[in-house]
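During data preparation, we tokenized the protein backbone, and the record follows.
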Amino acid sequence: MYDEFKRRLIEEMVIRRDVIVLNQSNRLTLEPIFEITSEDDKLYERLLDEFDRIAIRNVERLIANLCIKHDINVELSGATGRFDLVIIKDSRKYCVELKTSPRALTESSVNHGPASRLIEQVKATEDPVLLVFLVKDNDNSRNEMLRLESQRAKNKYPENLTFLLFDDFLNEFFGEDELKCFKKAMISYKDEMHQAIGYQITEIFNEHNLAILKNELEIELKNFDYDKQREERLSEIRSNGTRFRDINDYNFGNIKRKYINNERYRLLIGGGDFAKAFLTSEWLYKKYFSLTDLDNTFIVAGYLKSIEQLLWDIIYLKGQGNQIKKKGNRGTVLIDENNLEAIDTTLGSLEHFLKEYADDSIFESSFGGNTLFIRNYLKKQLATWHKKNRNGYFHKDNLNNLESIETIRNTTIFLHFLVMGSIALDNDDLIILGM
């Protein structure tokens, strides 16, 4: 039971850590001139706050399991409404409220803050209320308990409110043997938690896990069913009545040979920004996307970003001296390092560039006289994906639909395949792009 408690506590914290880290990287904050805390400091504080909530949820579950084991009636917070648990032992009812530290009950918070609401709840019931603190049993925590008791004398706390350390609570309700089992299980807890979430909290995955992910992806991308995706994308585009010619087998085979035989798929596990966005989404997808704890926005955003970044990196590399849209729909500008601030790098602008006849030279010569069709085919695939995913999928219902997330992933991989397999890329280009 205690091993299961510890396992769930660690696993839940690992999931929330990843969500917080990703969310932190997307937050726009105003920074004071005389700021002394680093982003890591702020991140660490958020992780601690989140861990407090996770700890309380899992301790509630542990107590409920102990009650079942010892034939004690118990109700969790969803049923009780007011308190975390209600326990009925020896025909007596106890309301249990869990707190991470007795220091949360400062004089100001009792009078005006969150603790004041708890005090009002205690006053509203005639049953004994146990305020259980999740801190270790030592001199410091015992002194804090004495401080709280001293406040009772000043009529700050109701008579039916009792303060308990978690060890005392376990011993009183479940016996000394359960307390010993709990302490034994928790001996290695801190080391296991550090190992699981990592000492470097800003790193989503360490080098070892990243290497494993890349090895798995290299095999998967090489053997991915691109023919099936071709058929599914064609069916999707035609489903709304759009007239759209499929790419012929010869040209599709050309794309596949360039992508597979020349190992261009390895760009997606390389060092480019588009690869980092793709790898982040893949890591989250493979570990967490089926869990309700994770906001799937992060998975989808990484896939979408990887397409935009790949297109821009390739267009900037291969399209030097060509025209591209300016920001604000104000004509065009040359692709040049001196014009970076003026270039419209949105997905719509990049799609338009690929369709322009003047940009024919960036495509593989093996397409011969079919290059115009290849460009139009790629443009239609990107535009359909853009309209459906970038503009239509950032809604909660869609993001919680696992089939939708899987479709976005598969389509993203297919589009990477089309782009990398149809654009002319030599060995120097591949190195520049991060292979």
User: Anything to note?
Assistant: The CA atoms of residues 304 and 390 lie 7 Å apart. The first strand starts at residue 73 and ends at 76.
